[in-house]
């Protein structure tokens, strides 16, 4: 059974886009980035595989061997996409280990702490989160927050890498009910606005921790004083690259309140609750992948198609801003849109069946002066023309490999193959010259953050081995 070509109604949106930003080049004929030689590609693939081997810790992959010594949720999903090319079984174990830490309510924690690592090696660590005292928490120590749901597409891609081994181990059969519980948690417990969209209750849950998109709702939060906590991240990165102390104080204030209410969504008096377009678009893609998994194991795919269509409809209706030419977050507490365009606002291109005028508007925005897709390095995390844009500060301007990879998937989904190829070339070129850095300056391509970063290596490997795209089950 083939996947449905469209998941949205064929009627178009009522409000056409106004005042589109000018494009720098025709978006179906972009200026190509230099493509490394074949020999360089082979060497790049070998080096990427070596990063994944070196960052493997028996049951999972750490994002880096310096700043991030535990297992992170959406990192592991991105790692699985690349790891499947060199060891499909290890990629299966990566996801299985993460879901072994799933909570009883279905949530998948954003950090699973490795008990072999010093408890003080990362802050906030297990002593801060105190998950063992929370109802429904697993036996292993975790955080109480979540990250975007990239796991079902990763599971489907991992299965397809070696169907025989996957079937022999019962990989999909065992993971399917856990994935279903995870998606159910997002669609029910996290529908805090009652509008059919999942809400994040902390900036860290977006995966784009320090994004300017969260500044307005964060302004309601009184930060913890700087003297009340000790940051470990500044031991590994320059202060100018990381969130400010004031923002960090707000992050800890939100996490402390959530923890002190037992991580119960209904009982926590949230000061921050935002319907994030990236998270919800990924949930649509995840439900489409679940439909493929259901077909494979003999379950009914219809509920997953229906859920994907329902969330996609809400995403378009509530979060697309025609004047911006992009999707924007919505404050779940006030119902107001947040007028901030970041890379999270263009990632919903991964949703198939979007109305054509929305697709064209988002691609125009990508190619225009805000993101300069055809001549910047990868995809900036924030619009280049913003007065508070920073080319180096965490999620406030630098380009990241995982979000560029998702944008490329969206371009392929809607037939912008030339743009997708140019973005692929840009990612490979930047990785080849940067040592698999965590993120890069979109103007000059200079790498920043942690080196030998796992999802960078993994997604480079995926671009080299499987350039055809697969996120939504294609």
TrEMBL record:
Taxon lineage: Bacteria, Bacillati, Actinomycetota, Actinomycetes, Kitasatosporales
Pfam families xrefs: MGH1-like_GH
Magnesium is among the record's keywords: no
Region (Disordered) residue spans: 1-28
Protein known as: Mannosylglycerate hydrolase MGH1-like glycoside hydrolase domain-containing protein
A single GO molecular function term of this UniProt record: Glc3Man9GlcNAc2 oligosaccharide glucosidase activity
Family: Belongs to the glycosyl hydrolase 63 family.
Keywords: Glycosidase, Hydrolase
UniProt-listed InterPro entries: 6-hairpin_glycosidase_sf, 6hp_glycosidase-like_sf, Glycoside_hydrolase_63, MGH1-like_GH
Annotated GO biological process: oligosaccharide metabolic process; protein N-linked glycosylation
Gene3D superfamilies tied to this protein: 1.50.10.10
UniProt organism field: Allostreptomyces psammosilenae
Domain Mannosylglycerate hydrolase MGH1-like glycoside hydrolase: 68-456
């Amino acid at each position: 059974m083939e996947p449905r070509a469209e998941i949205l109604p064929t009627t178009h949106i009522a409000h056409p886009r106004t005042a589109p930003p000018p494009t720098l080049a025709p978006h179906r004929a972009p200026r190509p980035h230099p493509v490394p030689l074949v020999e360089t590609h082979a060497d790049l693939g070998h080096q990427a595989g070596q990063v994944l081997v070196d960052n493997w810790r028996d049951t999972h992959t750490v994002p880096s061997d310096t700043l991030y010594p535990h297992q992170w949720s959406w990192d592991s999903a991105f790692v699985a996409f690349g790891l499947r090319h060199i060891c499909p079984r290890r990629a299966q174990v990566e996801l299985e280990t993460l879901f072994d830490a799933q909570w009883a309510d279905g949530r998948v924690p954003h950090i699973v702490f490795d008990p072999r690592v010093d408890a003080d090696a990362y802050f906030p660590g297990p002593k801060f989160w105190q998950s063992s005292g929370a109802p429904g928490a697993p036996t292993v120590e975790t955080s109480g927050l979540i990250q975007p749901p990239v796991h079902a597409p990763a599971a489907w891609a991992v299965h397809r890498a070696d169907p025989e081994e996957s079937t022999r181990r019962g990989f999909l059969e065992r993971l399917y009910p856990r994935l279903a519980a995870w998606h159910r948690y997002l669609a029910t417990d996290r529908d805090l606005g009652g509008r059919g969209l999942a809400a994040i209750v902390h900036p860290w849950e977006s995966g784009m921790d320090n994004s300017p998109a969260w500044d307005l709702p964060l302004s309601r939060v009184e930060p913890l004083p700087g003297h009340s906590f000790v940051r470990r991240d500044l031991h590994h990165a320059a202060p100018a690259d990381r969130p400010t102390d004031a923002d960090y104080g707000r992050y800890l204030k939100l996490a402390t309140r959530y923890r002190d209410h037992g991580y119960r969504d209904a009982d926590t008096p949230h000061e921050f609750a935002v319907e994030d377009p990236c998270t919800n678009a990924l949930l649509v893609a995840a439900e489409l992948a679940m439909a493929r998994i259901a077909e494979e194991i003999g379950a009914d795919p219809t509920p997953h198609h229906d859920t994907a269509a329902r969330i996609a409809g809400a995403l378009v209706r509530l979060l697309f801003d025609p004047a911006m030419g992009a999707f924007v977050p919505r404050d779940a507490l006030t119902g107001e849109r947040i007028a901030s365009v970041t890379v999270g606002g263009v990632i919903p291109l991964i949703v198939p069946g979007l109305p054509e005028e929305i697709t064209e508007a988002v691609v125009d925005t990508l190619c225009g002066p805000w993101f300069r897709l055809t001549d910047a390095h990868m995809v900036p995390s924030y619009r280049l023309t913003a007065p508070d844009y920073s080319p180096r500060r965490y999620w406030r301007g630098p380009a990241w490999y995982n979000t560029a990879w998702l944008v490329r998937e969206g371009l392929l989904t809607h037939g912008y193959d030339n743009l997708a190829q140019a973005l692929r070339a840009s990612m490979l070129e930047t990785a080849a010259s940067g040592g698999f850095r965590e993120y890069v300056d979109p103007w000059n391509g200079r790498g920043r953050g942690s080196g030998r970063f796992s999802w960078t290596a993994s997604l480079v490997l995926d671009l080299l081995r499987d350039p055809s795209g697969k996120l939504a089950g294609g």
